Amino acid sequence: ERERLRAVVNVPSETRDGREVNLYANITSLAELEQALKHGVKGVGLFRTEMLYMDRHTWPKEDEQFEVYKAAAQKLDGQPLVIRTLDIGGDKLLDYISLPEEDNPVLGYRGIRISIDRRDLFKTQLKAILRASSFGNVKILFPMICSIEEVRRAREVLDLAMQELQRAGQPYNTNIEIGIMIEVPAAVAIADLLAQEVQFFSIGTNDLVQYVLAVDRMNERISHLYEPYHPAVLRMLRATVEAARRNGISVSVCGELAGDADALPMWLGLGVHDLSMSSHSVLDVKRRLIDSSEKEGAELLDKLLACRTCTEMKSLIHETKAEDG
Ligand code: PEP
Ligand code: MG
């Protein structure tokens, strides 16, 4: 089995009928990037920067962050590196920032909400990312966006960061692409408006499922209710992809569902051709990809959209697998 998977690494990343799908890695460190490159990924679709901030007692300085982002950009040698700005709060906490105790941390002070509140820290990270952008194909991704205002406030800080670098004569890519995570139902509802403000969407199915179904993704007592194959989730995915397409921006997926090989035909049906996942999922997804076709994806999507229950959706997903297997 291991050998069969290894043999898949060098095969073109496309369906039987020739539709290319780019598989990217989700990483949290340079070590994970090494791992990902061994799996033949086309780049990094999600660099979760939280780890740079964790297990320490002070904020990482601009230079320290810059060195990491730069090393990643160089290793990727022109392939995309999507760096997500700090996404703490909720389940991810830091020793040196006393976040308020909250009754509902998942609905609380987290992600972009903290960044636009602590502009000094946010600007430091953005400057580090911008400086790294002259060493590769770096893009910036903002997490937990719920409104146009949040995008604009984040951009304001980005503009400040750019001005400061310019004044200091430090180079950066002035046309750096900006994207947002689509992981809150509000963002899906205004996806057509958000698509006019940014260059790309990255769908975060982990949080999206949590917020659409009102099921805390960390609460084991209700984990049976945490169901990505839910008609409500599918409609949200479809709406997001359509909004992106109508506005001519790109859309990728970086939640766990992107790394679920069984979901691959569904992504084909939806017209999603960029998937970012942890390295250990890459070979399974690729194996599924080279066994699939666009036609199969389109047919499956029609059937999934007609489902009224999660149970129906899941049995369809598994039927498709059985036919192929
Ligand atoms: C997500 O929410 O789907 C996501 C990719 O981000 P994280 O898991 O880091 O919240
Ligand atoms: Mg998330």
List the helices and strands and how they pair.
Blueprint: H1 2-8, E1 22-27, H2 30-38, E2 44-48, H3 50-53, H4 62-76, E3 80-84, H5 112-117, H6 119-132, E4 137-142, H7 148-167, E5 177-182, H8 185-189, H9 191-194, E6 200-203, H10 205-213, H11 231-246, E7 250-253, H12 264-270, E8 274-277, H13 279-290, H14 294-305, H15 310-324
Parallel strand pairs: 1-2, 1-8, 2-3, 3-4, 4-5, 5-6, 6-7
The chain binds phosphoenolpyruvate (PEP) and magnesium ion.
Phosphoenolpyruvate (PEP) binds at residues 46, 48, 87, 183, 204-207, 254-255.
GO molecular function, one term: metal ion binding
Active site: 254 (proton donor)
Keywords: Cytoplasm, Kinase, Magnesium, Metal-binding, Phosphotransferase system, Sugar transport, Transferase, Transport
